[in-house]
Write a sequence for this structure.
């Protein structure tokens, strides 16, 4: 099976290359805004203006006196910017979710441009070759043999440059039709504990809240600086680096968790939560699920890793009452509040709210797997005592599980907690 995969490398351009990048960013912004403005005016008159019409027009504009500087930019980069705008218009009219295309601002510190073809990479000397640019240095140990379909050069708010290369690779998927119940993992999202399952809990490291006081102090200083001054730009860069550090810590932590889950289990079951609705419900929850940890981003990465490693990933319906449903008798408790952290049922069950939800999610997920034709194998007495299935014993948690998560930015070993 052929798929498109992206490799993102950090690049280190010299001073001349940075100036050329700024030219590319500026021309792409000019092309995008010019075509967008013209399309809006033409649309009001009922005239269609396609992307290919815009490409032809810019080909003629290059020949006009005073616009020779457009020839310094790769022609395919200009064409790609016009096609990107056309795709944005098509998504707006078809999906109605992305919103109307907006003009690009010069004040925006995040810029990018794409080169569709004729890009090469030298892994021995660690250099990337782009048309009309000298070889750009990069630092990354990853190697791939696939042909580069396109490359996107981008700059973030911390003035760091990256090259994202899209390649076409062949992967072989071999899904197992027989699964052991011990190899099926399900968990419920919790604000206190990032994930809660029957076997373990992944602690919420609170990367944002640990830096919240520091951010308030820097933001207060930033608000007092004169707009556009040297100190204004300096303080803005400091803030951007703090936010970037929080993002890197969060992604590193969640990346290690997803690697661990995909490596140890054959099927992963989660709930499709309404994150936007949860943000509006409570301000404290909004900070937790978007800044301390991004649950939607975690599920997206986890789903991709399951697809790549031929593992089953199941998302149950968001309207399933996982927290209100009793995992023993099946009774729904309608008066359950968010503050009730212990689930008490009339049948006598008294259990942690999140653990009860994790059990319900697993039972529904197993039914979904059965509907897909997956056969479940019961755990025999001999298997229970084997080292392979004894995944969550105390000795394994200390030696292997902590070893898998040793690269967490916080450096703490209490990210996994046994139940």
């Amino acid at each position: 099976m052929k798929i498109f995969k992206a490799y993102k490398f950090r690049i280190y351009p010299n001073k001349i290359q940075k100036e050329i990048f700024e030219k590319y960013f500026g021309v792409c912004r000019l092309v995008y805004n010019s075509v967008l403005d013209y399309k809006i005016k033409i649309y009001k008159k009922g005239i269609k203006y396609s992307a290919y019409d815009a490409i032809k027009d810019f080909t003629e504009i290059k020949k006009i006196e005073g616009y020779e500087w457009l020839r310094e930019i790769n022609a395919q980069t200009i064409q790609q910017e016009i096609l990107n705008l056309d795709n944005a218009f098509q998504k707006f009219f078809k999906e109605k979710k992305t919103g109307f295309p907006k003009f690009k601002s010069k004040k925006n510190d995040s810029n990018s441009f794409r080169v569709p073809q004729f890009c090469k990479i030298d892994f021995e000397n660690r250099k990337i070759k782009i048309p009309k640019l000298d070889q750009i240095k990069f630092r990354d140990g990853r190697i791939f043999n696939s042909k580069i379909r396109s490359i996107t050069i981008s700059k973030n708010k911390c003035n760091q440059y990256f090259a994202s290369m899209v390649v076409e690779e062949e992967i072989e998927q071999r899904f197992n039709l027989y699964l052991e119940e011990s190899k099926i993992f399900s968990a419920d999202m919790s604000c206190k504990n990032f994930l809660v399952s029957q076997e373990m809990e992944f602690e919420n490291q609170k990367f944002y809240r640990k830096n919240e006081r520091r951010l308030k102090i820097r933001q207060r200083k930033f608000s007092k600086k004169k707009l556009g001054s040297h100190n204004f730009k300096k303080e803005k860069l400091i803030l951007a680096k703090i936010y970037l550090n929080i993002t890197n810590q969060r992604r590193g932590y969640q990346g290690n968790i997803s690697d661990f889950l995909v490596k140890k289990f054959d099927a992963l079951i989660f709930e499709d939560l309404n994150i936007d609705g949860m943000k509006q419900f409570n301000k404290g929850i909004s900070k937790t699920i978007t800044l301390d940890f991004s649950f939607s981003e975690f599920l997206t990465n986890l789903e991709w890793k399951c697809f790549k490693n031929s593992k089953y990933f199941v998302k149950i319906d968001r309207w399933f009452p996982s927290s209100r449903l009793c995992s023993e008798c099946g009774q729904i408790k309608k008066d359950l509040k968010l503050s009730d952290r212990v689930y008490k049922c009339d049948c006598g069950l008294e259990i942690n709210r999140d653990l009860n939800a994790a059990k319900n999610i697993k039972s529904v997920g197993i039914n979904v797997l059965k509907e897909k034709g997956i056969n479940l194998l019961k755990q025999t007495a001999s298997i229970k005592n084997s080292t392979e299935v004894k995944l969550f014993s105390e000795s394994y948690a200390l030696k292997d599980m902590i070893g898998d998560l040793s690269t967490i930015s916080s450096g703490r070993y209490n990210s996994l907690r046994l139940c």
